[in-house]
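Hey team,

Sharing the Homogentisate phytyltransferase run so nobody has to redo it. Sequence (409 residues) first:
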Amino acid sequence: MDSVLFRCLPHASSHTAVTGGDFCRTRHCAAISYASSYGPNASCNQRKVQNEYSCLRLRKPSLNHHYKGIGGGYTFQKYDIKFVVKATSEKSFGSESQAFDPKSVLDSVKNSLDAFYRFSRPHTVIGTALSIISVSLLAVEKISDISPLFFTGVLEAVVAALFMNIYIVGLNQLSDVEIDKINKPYLPLASGEYSFGTGVAIVSSFSILSFWLGWIVGSWPLFWALFVSFVLGTAYSINVPLLRWKRFAVLAAMCILAVRAVIVQLAFFLHMQTHVYKRPPVFSRPLIFATAFMSFFSVVIALFKDIPDIEGDKIFGIQSFSVRLGQKPVFWTCVSLLEIAYGVALLVGASSPCLWSKIFTGLGHAVLAAILWYQAKSVDLKSKASITSFYMFIWKLFYAEYLLIPFVR
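Structure output:
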């Protein structure tokens, strides 16, 4: 009878662990079995225990059948279910996180923007935008001229010019992929972030957008500024017979001077003067000063930009002044030209009839000249990083000059 009890109770506990709902009924079975073993009516009670045990045995196959459908049996049932659920859930959530991970999408967007930022050569973009805004202010004769009409005219010019700027710097990178792998390996085409086809698509798109915007604006000074910039920028970079003028130091300097010193100053001033304000063209004293000063500055930029790139230029036969004369003579020539330009600006400021113009132009150019000389003495001409850093400092001086030009009167 003890063996009967022993076999009855484990099944009862297993049944309780799995189902949970028949716990009270199973305890009742165990209690009856225990009482019947020691009660006075043992034979009668024994039959009752056998009936209860038979009842449990009859219920067991149905339970086994139910769990075999999921896969296991009594002993491994719980483990099997956990394993299947865990594996399925991990795979499902893992695939979903890879497909819809917001962080991954955000990183991809950031990388794309960073690549385009480097491709557009941001120091030239900033210089173009500042120069157009500064020259546009030279056309302002009275406070009422600063109106929505002024801001619309400036915005049209800036956007069209920036589109053309991206075309020019992008074409230069397409033509110099192998050189940039040595001189500027961080650029997207040189590093492989952009394919050649991607670069062509960007350059083509921005040139079309620039001309389209210039055409619908209807300003002839703006359109001709874009067209001349397109021609000179193409001739400077593209590698076809009679072109690729960047190979020749004088032609390269003349291209940059024509765009940065002449086209930007005259064409965008005339855009504001004749198209926006509908006034007759004039060549004022501030405009002449801006053109002359930026001619010096453009020559300096044309000369200095080749100093840190001397290694790649030598390998690919680019006969820049830095390759032909050496880095040190070209470096100090650039510094001297800028100091001369600042000296002329001091004289122009001193001769101004306006007191506020004397103060701003005179003091401003004196401070810039002093900072330039101080920075130039600390440059290590044997370090490419030091030279490149000073080149970017020259661009900062370029930006600062366009902040001072509107005060020249």
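Residues 2-99 form one domain.

Ping me if you want the raw files.
A.
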